[in-house]
Amino acid sequence: MRIVVKVGTSTLAHATGQLNIRRIERLCRVIADVKNSGVEVVMVSSGAIGMGVGKLSLSQRPSDVPGKQAASAVGQCELMYVYDKEFEQYHHVVAQMLLTSYEIENDDCRCNIENTLQRLMDYRVLPIVNENDTVATEELGIGENDTLSAIVATLAKADLLVILSDIDGLYDSDPHQNPQAKLIPLVREITPEIFALAGGAGSKLGTGGMETKLRAGLVANRAGIPMVIMNGRQPELLYDLMEGKPVGTRFEGRKDV
Ligand SMILES: Nc1ncnc2c1ncn2[C@@H]1O[C@H](COP(=O)(O)OP(=O)(O)O)[C@@H](O)[C@H]1O
Ligand SMILES: N[C@@H](CCC(=O)OP(=O)(O)O)C(=O)O
After folding, report:
1. What's the ipTM?
2. Domain range spanning residue 122?
3. Nearest CA to ligand 1 atom 12
4. Which among 248, 229, 195, 186 is positioned nearest to 8, based on CA atoms?
C-alpha cells in the first residue's frame, strides 16, 4: 500500500500564520506510525511561504511574486527542519523534493523524478514534496499543491491520495457560508454538477478551496487512484482510513477512464 498525503498551510499553521506545534507533532506521529505499519507514504506539504513570513517577521503574506518566492525560500528550510526533527524521534528519514511543472512535463526529468521516488521508497525514506517556488513563477508554476499532490500520486503510482484540509470533506455547499451544509461521503464521478458545489478558499492561509481539490481528484481518478479529502485537524483519523472505515469524502478512482 502506497499513499500520498497532502498537507495544506491551514493544517500546519494557526490563523496567525505561526506554526501549529501541537498539530504538526500529532500529524508526524501518526504518519510515522502508519509507515511503521508497512504503508509507504509520500507527503506533499505546503507551508513554506507561511513559515517564511513568520521567520522574517513580515506583518502579512507578500502579494507580489518575488516576495512569495523569498518567503518560501526562507520558510522551506524551516519546514524541513521541523519535519526532520519530528520524524527523527521515530527513526524515520525524510527527503526534500522540490518540483515545478517544467520538470513534470519534461519526459527525461519526469523519469528522474519517478526513479528518485522509487529509490527513496526502497530506502524506506519519507519524501516530502513541495513546489519549487523560487522558479515556479505564475506562468511556469502549478501554483497550488492540491494539483501537485495528484501529479505526485500518479508519478509515485500510489494506491490512494489523501488531502488533509481544514474541513471534514466536500459538502453540498461551503459550510463557512451555509451552516446547514451536508457532508457528501462518496463521489463516484467528479462531474460538472460536483464542481458547481465547490467554492474558494475558506481562510486567509488556504489558496485553492474545494475547486482545486476537485481538479486534483480528476487527475488522480483518471489515473485510477481514489482520493479522500479529510480533516487535517484530526490526524488520528488516518488510522481509521487505513482500517477501511469511512472518513471524509472519498472520490472513487475509475480504472476504465
Ligand atoms: N462545497 C464545499 N465543501 C467544503 N468546503 C468548501 C466547499 N466550498 C468551498 N469550501 C471551502 O474550502 C475550504 C478548504 O480549502 P482551503 O481554504 O484551500 O484550505 P486547505 O487547502 O488548507 O484545506 C474550506 O474551509 C471551505 O471554506
Ligand atoms: N508552495 C506553497 C504552497 C501553496 C499552496 O498550495 O498552499 P495550500 O493551499 O496551503 O496547500 C508553500 O509551500 O507555501
Report:
1. 0.96
2. 2-251
3. 209
4. 229
